[in-house]
Amino acid sequence: MQYGKQKINNKYYLFNQFNGKMMTGWILLNGVQYYCYSDGHMAIDEIIDGKKLDINGKYIAVKLFVISGHGAGDPGACANGYREADLTRLLAKQIKQLGGNRVLISEYDRDYYQDNGITKLKLPITTSIIELHLDSASPTARGGHIIKQKGTKATESDIKLEKLITKYLPGRSKKIVYRDNLANPKRAMKQGYDYRLMECGFITNKKDVKEFHEYLSELAKGILEAFGV
Fold first, then answer.
1. For site-directed labelling of 187, which of 13, 160, 180, 193 has its Cα 20 to 30 A away?
2. pTM value surpassing 0.85
3. Under DSSP, is residue 118 helix (H, G, I), strand (E, B) or coil?
4. Which fold is adopted by the domain 64-227?
5. Looking at residue 168, what DSSP letter applies?
6. pLDDT means over runs of 10, the chain (229 residues)
7. Do the domains spanning 4-60 and 64-227 agree at the CATH topology level?
8. Where are the domains of the chain?
């Protein structure tokens, strides 16, 4: 008879601590939620019923999902020796490093616009989403801004992001704009997610690109603070 958490053939199983019965489904153990499949093996580093389980099988309440714009063969805008897809992933990686298990980032080689990824998400509806991009225009255009789907309202997080942009990526007169011609904001609104797209300056502006790199850590910290992470 086995009890508690046991490793069998490189998989983990949970057995009732009193009668040794193999446990399945959602299990609350010492204040932590786990999930075991019908054959008993524990889910590890997966999303089950919209809940993210970490590498130890523990449910961690994810607060922020970060989508890196472009990728999967689409470099996005290219200028000043950089590709938009690379820069968005650079910032997303920094956000994840600082935010830990409360943050999920999109897969490195995936384009959430091309594959309609937002409609396939299985995250709790309470998860906030930020999608990272950089603008492209004339070399003199500069500054970041937030794009919200028309018909939605700016949240407290958006107001904090507006202040972050004003401090580190200034240049635009309007820091929060509402549009109705972008696919992902529409998809997110239809799914009921709290979503915004953040343009992190202009990749075509040398000063914006310089400040993006110079303030990378500050931008990541500010984004996390905006969502209470």
1. 160
2. no
3. helix
4. Aminopeptidase (3.40.630)
5. H
6. 86 88 89 90 90 87 92 96 98 96 90 92 88 97 97 96 96 95 95 96 98 98 96
7. no
8. 4-60, 64-227
